Amino acid sequence: MRGMRGHIAAGLAALTVIAVGASCAGAADVADQEKAVAKLLVAKLGDDAATIRVTLVKGKAILTGEVKTRAVKELAKEVALAAAGVEKVDNQVSSESTGALGKGKIREEAADAELEAGVQKALKAEIGAHTKTIEIEACDSWVSLRGTAPDKARRELALATAAKVEGVAKVIDLIVVSAK
Question: Which domains does the chain have, with CATH numbers?
Answer without folding.
Answer: 2-95 (3.30.70), 103-177 (3.30.300.130)
